[in-house]
């Protein structure tokens, strides 16, 4: 009966304006968020181990390669002090001889000479339980360049009619490394935990490399020949200027990927900001509509309160109306998002067949949080207005 009494002054056009504005704003926010999550792996070429805001820096090699290619502490400090640098780490290389044999079920099928490099653990994005070594451990975790597997599959194996190997199969292969130096040698098991697109080196944990260098090459020069630099903005022109002035080399492809990811982040943030602005404006439209309704029904509300109805009971119809509209908006926004995503994901999958599907759960959680926030503000504002009467 209260609802029948209070709904007489409700303007359908005002509520429709709020509904459409809120739906439009919510859809823009969710679509920008979901599109960024879906497209970012394509441009960033994320391999799960090294992010694109990390640059690999080395010195240019002279014609005959006789000049020093190591970095002094002064050069490292100078690069670390640059405004575009957020943090900096050094590559450490093994200073002893390493050979590796690989096989299945304990039978060695082939072997090769190799080397190890390491970077500080903070620059390697993997689970601590996998990327860990303590002195006394008998298994060394290794990350290999994905190009190594491609060279074997499409070069060596294809020319000799050997079977091609998948990443999962290689990770299960028995691998043994033999380290020799300073009159000592030690044989250890190794475990390939993954492959990297960005690192053209055989990566091991820093703790293992520090221990093995002390054990097999205690007097060797361990000055770094490469640096890993975390930058705040890969598009900063000062990066290229600094590299040119100091005769350094960086991977231009990876720098371009970092720039693309940065621009994608900016565009997505701008679109989301527009969507949030529209959602905020729709919230004010609703508040204005509710305030007008309350003003039109002031006499009726006063009479209901004098009859003994509580402010919570009187304001409940308005609150249910706003909450119901917000939930309908969320449902329709998720449905439209699913339709839009189905369309553009078919196009992306045709270009990148191996791209993974991240799902809509994160977008749904974001939409639910926005809806709950809008509902909370509306409920509190309506309750306050009725209590004021």
Question: Could you characterize what this model shows?
Answer:
With 389 residues, the protein is an alpha+beta fold. 54% of the residues lie in helices and 18% in strands. It contains 11 helices and 11 strands. Strands 5-4-8-9-7 form a 5-stranded mixed beta sheet. Strand 4 (97-104) and strand 5 form a beta hairpin.
Describe what is shown at a glance.
By secondary structure, the protein is of the alpha+beta class. The protein has helices at 2-6, 12-44, 73-80, 146-159, 167-172, 206-216, 237-245, 252-296, 298-306, 311-351, 361-388, and strands at 54-59, 85-90, 92-93, 97-104, 107-114, 117-118, 139-145, 174-181, 184-196, 226-231, 248-250. The protein has two domains: 2-45 and 258-388, no CATH class; 92-221, no CATH class.
Regions with pLDDT < 50 over 5+ consecutive residues?
Answer: none
Mean pLDDT comes to 77
Q: What structural class results from the helix and strand content?
A: alpha+beta
Distance between the termini: 20 Å
Count of DSSP-assigned helices: 11
Number of strands: 11
Biggest β-sheet: count, sense, barrel? 5 strands, mixed
The whole-angstrom Rg is 31 Å
Task: List the strand order in the largest sheet.
Answer: 5-4-8-9-7
Q: Estimate percent helicity.
A: 40-55%
Share in β-strands: 15-25%
Domains, number: 2
- Overall spatial form: elongated
Written as H for each helix and E for each strand, in order along the chain, the element string is HHEHEEEEEEHHEEHEHEHHHH
């Amino acid at each position: 009966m209260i609802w029948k009494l209070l709904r007489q002054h409700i303007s359908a056009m005002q509520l429709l304006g709020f509904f459409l504005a809120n739906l439009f704003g919510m859809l823009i926010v969710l679509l920008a968020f979901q599109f960024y999550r879906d497209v970012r792996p394509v441009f960033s070429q994320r391999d799960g181990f090294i992010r694109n805001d990390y640059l690999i820096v080395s010195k240019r090699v002279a014609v005959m390669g006789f000049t020093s290619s190591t970095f002094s502490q002064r050069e490292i400090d100078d690069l670390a002090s640059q405004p575009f640098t957020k943090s900096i780490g050094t590559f450490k290389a093994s200073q002893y001889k390493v050979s590796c044999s690989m096989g299945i079920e304990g039978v060695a099928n082939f072997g090769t000479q190799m080397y190890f490099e390491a970077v500080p653990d903070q620059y390697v994005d993997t689970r601590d339980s996998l990327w860990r070594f303590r002195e006394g451990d008998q298994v060394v975790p290794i990350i290999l360049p994905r190009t190594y597997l491609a060279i074997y599959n499409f070069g060596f194996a294809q020319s000799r009619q050997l079977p091609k190997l998948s990443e999962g199969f290689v990770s299960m292969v028995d691998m043994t490394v033999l380290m020799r130096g300073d009159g000592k040698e030690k044989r250890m098991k190794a475990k390939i935990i993954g492959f990297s697109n960005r690192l053209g080196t055989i990566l091991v944990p820093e703790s293992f490399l520090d221990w093995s260098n002390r054990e097999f090459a205690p007097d060797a020069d361990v000055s770094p020949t490469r640096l890993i630099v975390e930058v705040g903005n890969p598009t900063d022109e000062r990066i290229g200027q600094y590299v040119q002035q100091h005769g350094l080399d960086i991977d231009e492809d990876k720098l371009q990927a970092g720039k693309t990811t940065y621009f994608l982040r900016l565009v997505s943030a701008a679109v989301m900001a527009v969507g949030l602005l529209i959602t905020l404006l729709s919230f004010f439209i609703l508040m204005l509509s509710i305030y007008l309704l309350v003003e039109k029904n002031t006499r009726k509300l006063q009479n209901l309160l004098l009859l003994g109805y509580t402010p919570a009971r009187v304001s409940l119809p308005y609150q249910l109306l706003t909450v119901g509209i917000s939930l309908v908006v969320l449902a329709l926004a998720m449905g439209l998002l699913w339709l839009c995503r189905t369309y553009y994901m078919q196009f992306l999958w045709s270009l990148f067949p191996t791209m993974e599907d991240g799902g809509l759960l994160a977008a749904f959680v974001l939409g639910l949080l926005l809806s709950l926030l809008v509902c909370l503000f509306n409920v509190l504002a309506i309750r306050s207005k009725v209590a004021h009467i």
